[in-house]
Amino acid sequence: MNAAPIRLIVGLGNPGAEYERTRHNAGFWLADTYAADLRASFFVEKSFMGEVAKARVDGENVYLAKPITFMNRSGQCVGALARFYKLAPEQVLVLHDELDLLPGQAKIKQGGGHAGHNGLKDIQAALGGPGFWRLRIGIGHPRTLGLAQQVADFVLHPPRREEQDQIDDVLARCRPLLPHFLAGDFERALRQLNEGKRA
């Protein structure tokens, strides 16, 4: 049985050219891909504190956003959009980098904690709870990857070449999940993602 279809997709990252290729911006990378698939273009909408793209899918409005605040204030954009378009948290999908998953891995989940991710923490506060969906894009943890960097430094640097290749691969596997999210068919999205891992 399908859940509520996704109507707002939010990619997390930090604005500005200096952050464009950093690990923390993996959510932006996938949001750009999804916007291209929907033939939608991002425009800065200051009232929503983000870049916003709009599309029509099966007669329904779909919105994509990339906050133009820094990561720890992502909830300002998400909250403003959800209130304006009267969207419930379960109609929101957040695309974000995940330290607890290796590069090349991705997971779909609804609810749960923020695990110290400042973007998720702020969105949870803005939406009044953790009921939104997340697509977690693995970037690895510096300890797991054998690096001496602190986490804050690690996420604000570009991935190494082999890690970038693995992240690009998982983003490509996440791309065909978009229609399932917009149909509210999370079981099928999850199944397809898991099948992709074994391929």
From TrEMBL:
Subcellular location as annotated: Cytoplasm
Annotated site (Stabilizes the basic form of H active site to accept a proton): D97
Leader sequence segment: none
Active site: H24 (proton acceptor)
Top-rank taxon: Bacteria
Pfam families xrefs: Pept_tRNA_hydro (PF01195)
Organism (species): Kerstersia gyiorum
Protein name: Peptidyl-tRNA hydrolase
